[in-house]
Amino acid sequence: TSLPSARLVRVFEQLKAEHGLPDVLRTDNGPEFLGECFTSWCKENKITIDYIEPGKPNQNAYIERFNRSYRTEVLDTWLFRDLDEVREMTWAWMLEYNEERDHDSLGGMTPIEALEKARISTFELST
To answer: What CATH topology corresponds to 1-51?
Structure first.
């Protein structure tokens, strides 16, 4: 399914209410990120959009890696009967990806372990 600019704004409004907004958004040049509705909303909310260069997915390597994992482990692996089944399989995969699978980039920890470690850090600033 596509994600038009107006829907993208609704998603970001929800993120704004729950977590706040970033100062800079790095993204590809998809039509949802180029639409007037979204670009105007970003301007109103003081978000700078940092577009990657066309044909340079390596400039957005983190999400490209995630997308590849999702595509090969979920979308290319299963035949789905309907969108609800895609959502259910995606939810299960996200739980495994974030809570059970260790990530080399996190020193062999799962994302949930890394988050917990960051929360209980004993790092203090010296005065």
So the answer is: Nucleotidyltransferase; domain 5 (3.30.420)
Q: Where are the domains of the chain?
A: 1-51, 58-127
Answer whether 110's CB lies under 8 Å from 98's CB: yes
Higher pLDDT, 67 or 120: 67
Please name which of 126, 79, 26, 107 lies closest in space to residue 117, comparing C-alpha atoms.
107
| Amino acid identity at 30 | G
Name the least confident of 31-40, 67-76, 82-91, 116-125: 116-125
Residue 22 has φ and ψ, to the nearest 5°, of -75, 160
Per the rule left: phi > 0, alpha: psi between -120 and 50, beta: everything else, 107 is: left
Q: Quick: pLDDT tens for 7-29.
A: 999 999 999 999 899 999 998 88
